[in-house]
Design brief:
Number of domains: 2
Distance between the termini: 48 Å
Shape: elongated
Number of helices: 6
Structural class: mainly alpha
Strand content: under 5%
Radius of gyration: 19 Å
Length: 128
Amino acid sequence: MSDAVRVGAAAVIAAICAVVIRKQAPEIALALGLCAGALLALWCSGALSAVLSFLDKLAETGGLSAAVLEPVVKTAGIAIVTHLAAAFCRDAQESALASIVEVAGTALALAASLPLMSAVLELMTGLL
């Protein structure tokens, strides 16, 4: 919980700084938001590595191959990157570009999940 409070506090401080700076220099405010977001993402990378190691342990314990969990992890990563990119586009007053990023992210997530969908299809045809 304390990490969530720290991340939230750092984000609020960066947002307040960006609001104050935006009146004088909007491009610097956008850069500040990008840098703060990147630093917060790096800060949380330890939590992501813990999740990935848990998924490996889960796959090993359940007898699942890495090929089954890999599309899930890729899809989650695509969703995170797409959400962040779209939010930054909206902050830059580029809502049309943000919408295109979201559509592209959806297409990429579907493409990343194709191996998993193929495995499900093979399982279903094997049962029939």
